[in-house]
Design a protein that fits this description.
Layout: E1 3-5, E2 8-9, H1 14-23, H2 31-35, H3 40-43, E3 64-65, E4 84-85, H4 103-115, H5 123-135, E5 136-137, E6 144-146, H6 149-168, H7 172-192, H8 199-217, H9 223-236, H10 238-245, H11 253-259
Antiparallel strand pairs: 1-6, 2-5, 3-4
This protein binds heme C (HEC).
Length: 261
């Protein structure tokens, strides 16, 4: 819980960052997976694997999953329990990454709709997800990095980039998913800001999340400017406060270890 696999991206362009945002959004998968808070990133942390992934009825040994399990999708469940090791997406796999064949887009679409029982992804969603998967690389410096508040703050930046891209592509569903992705990241921060001493930060996180929801539910023509305003305020206010309090949160390895005793 204090470490994670490291990924170095071949490109940091908005397309790739938008894909990273949606990769972490549970509502992309829909159905049982979304209810359990699972996103692509739950199994493929930073696009790599997750040696600790263990879900009753889905995994056998830690780090395995049966993605043709009827737990996720009544349509696709093959009635057999056949978990396999979760692959590291930064390594070449059985699905071609060649953009010309679009095999990756087809695979990801199938995964979302058939295997997880999610809603049909829009072309823009598939484009950004595939761009992100294609950009994944291992890191020369090491395979593991610490988990920090900065991960969630960067993911919120990604969410803003994704929302902007979806608005530009006239994809309201994609914009809504991007906002949901940001709200999920605020929730992940709140999970680590535990205890009475951080109650005000938790309250402010909840308020920031509700403000995002209100923006998403509001006038579609104003979502873009409203998000820019939200982000400016967030960076000036809450993000700074969270940074100051990070050492008192469960992002701090010692505090995390103590809380698990
Ligand atoms: C419950 C865990 C789980 C979740 C959630 C999940 N995956 Fe996977 N993923 C797997 C497993 C297991 C395989 C290997 C399947 C196989 O070999 O048949 C896999 C395979 C893949 C592959 C093919 C890798 C190759 O061999 O080339 C891609 C790409 C991929 N996943 C992307 C995604 C994306 C994008 C999402 C979210 C939409 C996602 N995965 C969600 C477990 C998961």
């Amino acid at each position: 819980m204090s470490e994670q696999p490291a990924t170095c991206l071949a490109s940091n362009m908005p397309l790739v960052r938008s894909g990273r945002a949606l990769f972490g959004a549970p509502t992309l998968l829909g159905g049982q997976a979304a209810k359990a808070g699972l996103s692509c990133a739950s199994c493929h942390i930073n696009g790599r694997n997750n040696p600790h992934f263990l879900l009753a009825g889905v995994s056998e040994a830690p780090g395995t999953a049966d993605v043709t399990n009827s737990f996720f999708s009544a349509a696709r469940g093959n009635g057999q329990f056949d978990p396999v090791v979760i692959p590291d997406l930064a390594m070449p796999g059985k699905v071609s990454r060649d953009p010309d064949t679009r095999a990756l887009e087809a695979f990801v679409r199938n995964l979302i709709v058939e295997e997880f029982g999610g809603r049909e992804p829009t072309p823009a969603m598939l484009d950004v997800l595939a761009a992100y998967v294609r950009a994944m690389r291992t890191c020369p410096a090491g395979q593991s990095v610490e988990r920090r508040l900065g991960d969630q703050l960067a993911a919120i930046d990604d969410g803003i980039a994704a929302a902007q891209m979806m608005i530009d592509r006239a994809d309201p569903e994609g914009a809504a998913l991007s906002i949901a992705a940001m709200r999920h990241q605020l929730g992940l921060i709140a999970e680590r800001y535990t205890g009475a001493g951080l109650a005000r930060e938790r309250q402010a996180l909840l308020a920031a999340s509700r403000a995002l929801q209100a923006i998403g539910d509001g006038d579609p023509a104003r979502i873009g400017p409203a998000l820019v305003r939200w982000k400016r305020e967030f960076d000036k206010g809450l993000a700074k406060r969270l940074r100051r309090a990070e050492s008192r949160s469960l992002y701090d390895e010692k505090r995390l270890a103590e809380s698990l005793r």
